[in-house]
Task: structure prediction
Amino acid sequence: MENPFYITGIIPEPYFCDREKETTWIIRTLENKAHILLSSPRRMGKTQLIRHVFEQQPIKDNYYTFYTDIYPTTSLHEFVLFLSKEIYSVLVPKGITVLNSFIAGLHSLAGCFGYDPVNNTPTFEIKLGDIRSPELTIEEIFRYLEKADKPCIFAIDEFQQIANYPEKNVEAMLRTHIQKMNNCLFIYAGSNRHILENMFNSAAKPFYNSAEQMYLDCIDKDVYTEFAEKQFAKAGRKIYPQAASFAYDLFDGHTYYVHNVLHNAFAYISSETVVDKDDIKKTLTDMLEEKGRTFVLLMAQLNYQQKETLIAIAKEGMASSVTSVAFVKKHALKSPSSVQYAIGTLLEKQLLTYQNKGRTKVYCLADRFLEMWICRTY
Result:
């Protein structure tokens, strides 16, 4: 029996939970020729929502759709690499005519294209060193999208990364090209709400007021628990409503983590068993024990102050005023300055994230499983 709680790949329609209003809004906004800023905490489901929208008939039938996650990128060169590879991979199945149009437009990367006579397919062997002039290649990519034989939608996930590129005026350069385009719409997605809102809501920024905005929050608890019960029932199995509700509450409705626990409960608990709260607890314990091997190695890479600061924030869950004397004393930390320095490193290592509530930064661990493991271990 296929596990209905998908945690990798594209989620098929029957196994996609809710997001009906969000899907309708995104499609309507795109059909009205507006760009979109989609922000959410990491692992809340924005990537799956974008892919879900791309599979809907009004979009699938009428647009070329592209998606790339630029989270790993650290420069404009890498940004160009990710965009060009995505366009190539999408266009290959569309046929040689469409692909040739793209190849003909990328003069700056002409040497990267070839042909595999064995498989009778074109090839695109691009490396970072091949991108000598990223500004020129970006211009060629956008020119292709503007001249494509169908309208295009390009989703760029973790778009806030461009704010960290060492090259100057990346935002201004991209915005200059994009505002001239009529044949391509962009979905700018990301998990750092603070940076994204600054990019799109500050009058001093190039992307100011250039996209319709949506913040993706948790799926409603009643909707999600009903979905979970139905997925078990379709497979001829049962889960108590209280158990589904308990799994939801464990992670405050954070989609990825709830889905993970139910995925494992479905996979490893006997099909004859009606899943209850104790089964969810045991499933989570087993998962944390398995992940603990990796977490031990991760903690070993931190110095003492970083480790103690991470543990303190994990035990708080949501921690504010982390450099206050009260916080330092409560968790027996060295000093406010050492905490501040440790937090900077933990943010760089992407072990921490934060939200702005008024003028206060509220920190939490980026990985809820790590947070739970720390609370159980320390």
Remarks:
- The longest helix spans residues 277-300.
- Residues 1 and 138 are 46 Å apart (CA to CA).
- The chain has a mean pLDDT of 93.
- The longest strand covers residues 184-190.
